Amino acid sequence: MLTCTESTEIGATWVLGRSVHNEAHPIGCLPPLPMSTFKSGSSSVSPYVDPTPLPSDVPHVDEIGVTSAPLKSAAFFIGAHCKEYNDDFMLCKKESPDPAHCLKEGRRVTRCAADLIEKMRASCAATYDAHWQCLENNNQEFYKCRKPERKLNDCIFENLTIPGAPTHKPQVHELTNPIYKRQQK
């Protein structure tokens, strides 16, 4: 029980937010808030069923199964390894803004990226883990993880033969007349 006597005119006793004497509560003295209620957690043991499954003509592909740091660590290699699939997907997206139009191409990109990450884990697991954990611990900033990045690059270029920059073309930072547009499309 809480007795509110802040006002000289009304002194009511409050029980669970109601006045015992059905009096209005005095100014500056509010009734106590009720205790929060208990809600049990979801303990469903049945697997999740997607309420909007994809059509049967779209091939199934498993998710990559990594978080943002491992994806960011492998991003440059995914771009080089899956270039054809990425280009095909981007051309498809340019043809039609409808998301359903390019589901097959998107699945191919996902399958290629998952395949590359499996290969990276098989051949360069220690350096890959060191690099993505460095990214995870340093707010995903590349400049703070250059040493593990060099080791990862060496391992990937040797074991997976993903090519580096072409030797017969100038490097990006050496271009004399780079072309920039105000808005990238």
TrEMBL record:
A GO term from the CC aspect: mitochondrion
Residue ranges that the Swiss-Prot or TrEMBL entry lists as coiled coil: none
Name the chain's protein: NADH dehydrogenase [ubiquinone] 1
Into which family does the record put it?
Belongs to the complex I NDUFA8 subunit family.
One GO process term, biological-process aspect? mitochondrial electron transport, NADH to ubiquinone
**Subcellular location field:** Mitochondrion
Primary location:
mitochondrion
**PANTHER family membership:** NADH DEHYDROGENASE [UBIQUINONE] 1 ALPHA SUBCOMPLEX SUBUNIT 8 (PTHR13344:SF0), NADH-UBIQUINONE OXIDOREDUCTASE (PTHR13344)
Q: Does the keyword Lipoprotein apply?
A: no
Entry keywords, A to Z: Disulfide bond, Electron transport, Mitochondrion, Repeat, Respiratory chain, Transport, Ubiquinone
Name the species this protein comes from.
Rhizoctonia solani
The record describes the protein's role as:
Accessory subunit of the mitochondrial membrane respiratory chain NADH dehydrogenase (Complex I), that is believed not to be involved in catalysis. Complex I functions in the transfer of electrons from NADH to the respiratory chain. The immediate electron acceptor for the enzyme is believed to be ubiquinone.
**Record-linked InterPro entries:** NDUFA8 (IPR016680)
